[in-house]
Amino acid sequence: MASASAPTTEGPAPVKFNKKLVTWLVVGVVLVALVAWVVGSYNRLVTSREGVNNAWSAVESDYQRRSDLVPNLVATVQGAANFEQDTLTKVTEARAKATQTTVNLDDPATVQAFSASQGELSSALSRLLVSVEAYPTLTATKNFQDLQAQLEGTENRISVARKDYSAEAKSYNVLRSKFPTNIVAGIFGFKERTYFEAEAGAEVAPTVDFTNTNTAQ
Length: 217
Hints:
Blueprint: H1 19-78, H2 85-100, H3 108-131, H4 136-139, H5 142-177, H6 181-188, H7 211-216
Helix pairs in contact: 1-2, 1-5, 1-6, 2-3
């Protein structure tokens, strides 16, 4: 009697990999990662650049606030007898130049021109406030004292706004310069931001002590 043959056991069939499919999957994963990195870098640059733009808007706003005070200051000082007209003329001319200077943050030359014109106005105002010391009757008026206080407060705000802008600009410039983010910055045209630096001391209105002058009268 023929013996029954032993049943054969076979393992699972080996999986056959499609080399082309694997290659395309790898390429797809790399592309997705690359796109995600580009998008992330782009968004970080946009966010940082907007921070710079907002900080610059604060700088311009505070300078405009100062510019709006100048006509009232000049009108008040003009009321003093024999006040030197040349000083008032220089303040008025400096204000006109400063208000006519527009800024494009992508163009460093316009930032420098704006800085220079505002520096000229700061210097002209400083000379005006020093000259006013010779007119104690004028400095004793409430109108002048109010304007003086507003001007000094505005100068302080300008100083803070400038520092905030410089900090934002530095952060943005460092980000756009780092490798490999600088590649994305170059492709999408993220330009460097110029630091706004006025002359030392130009941003601070001189502290004029009218107390002694008024008391002596």
